[in-house]
Amino acid sequence: MKQTWRWFGKNDPISLENIRQAGSDGIVSALHGYPPGTVWSKEDILEHKQLIEDAGLTWDVCESIWMSDEIKLKGAAAVKEVAAWKETLQNLGEAGVKTVCYNFMPVVDWTRTDLKHPIEGKGIALRFDMIDFVAYDVYVLKRPNAENDYEPATLELAKKALAEKSAEEIALLEKNIIAGLPGGAEAAGTGEFAQRIAQFDNLSNEDMRNNLVSFLEEVIPTAEANGISLAIHPDDPPFPLFGLPRIVSTESDLDFMFGAVKSPANGLTFCVGSFGARADNDLVKMASKYIDRIHFTHLRNVRRNPDGSFHEAEHLDGDLDMIAIVQSLISAELASKADDSKKDHEIYMRPDHGHLLAFEENSKVNPGYSYLGRLKGMAELRGVIQTIERFGS
């Protein structure tokens, strides 16, 4: 298991030198200046890679090649955009970047309602509050028939919560939900956001699954030809939002996807925090079951509430047994390597998100991507990994 760190490029307030001092062996990055549907030039890819290598690091994972909703909808522009995606994939492969993370979430990327949720004595975390989310969906966005997606008691709580918020608090809630976050779409106003959602009104989960399979059947040959492993990121959170289809949320979703496209290049980003927001996902089992498809892992913990709310916990302190999950990953990885054809299989990991601690509270950081919070998480996880690797599973 190789330890990596996400870097957002030249504009990232955290430098490559900072990252190297954190003990990272490699970098997870992307060319963030390119909009979806455009080809990343070979020159820009190589320049980005050289910056990383000049700092004594390696660019191990591309996270992500963005795609617009046109591909997920199989819309009029999908053929052109898939062709651009494939060309970018080839350019990355020729440059030596062999693992590519992507997601197939419609409209919204990873979604939180609160980007500054205080945890007593432990800093500031990201939080998804189900009641606040319902309040926004039903009473602010006013999505048609949204109330049919929720229980009456939940609607009452949401109405009460919204009534207690000031105009400024409602505006902040909307910004947190629909503003572009790292790897997400551009920020949109309420009207535009509602229009994006409406595009999917007639698309079922089955339709969405079929569109994903069509996409994979188109791009996997390019990945294979260039020695690239694709690693789909699960839905975050792993349950329906805004009535949109969600197709990478559960073990059964993965069984369908891997069964439909059997190539080992059709792989997974095993995001522990995303899958773990559902109590019915058995992370230890999934880590072992899908080891041959897990090319990349995000190690993050969560603390869940019964109503579906959750906040991002410290890496070793949440509802998920992180030590058992890492142990399962390492044990399965070592067992897989016993097969000569898989002896070079290595999972890239990164500490996914971290609390905003007091020292950085007034610093400019991407939400969830503080330096000290991730440094703390990386150190804790490194201790777990080295202990398991030394003393066995």
From TrEMBL:
InterPro entries according to UniProt: Man_deHydtase, Xyl_isomerase-like_sf
Domain of life according to the entry: Bacteria
Catalytic activity: D-mannonate = 2-dehydro-3-deoxy-D-gluconate + H2O
The protein's Enzyme Commission number: 4.2.1.8
SUPFAM superfamilies attached to this UniProt entry: Xylose isomerase-like
GO terms of molecular function: ferrous iron binding; manganese ion binding; mannonate dehydratase activity
Cofactor(s) in the UniProt record: Fe(2+); Mn(2+)
GO biological process assignments: D-glucuronate catabolic process
A Pfam family per the record: UxuA
Keywords attached to this entry: Iron, Lyase, Manganese
Pathway: Carbohydrate metabolism; pentose and glucuronate interconversion
HAMAP family documented for this protein: UxuA
Family the UniProt entry places it in: Belongs to the mannonate dehydratase family.
Job of this protein: Catalyzes the dehydration of D-mannonate.
Protein's UniProt name: Mannonate dehydratase
Organism: Leucothrix arctica
Gene behind the chain: uxuA
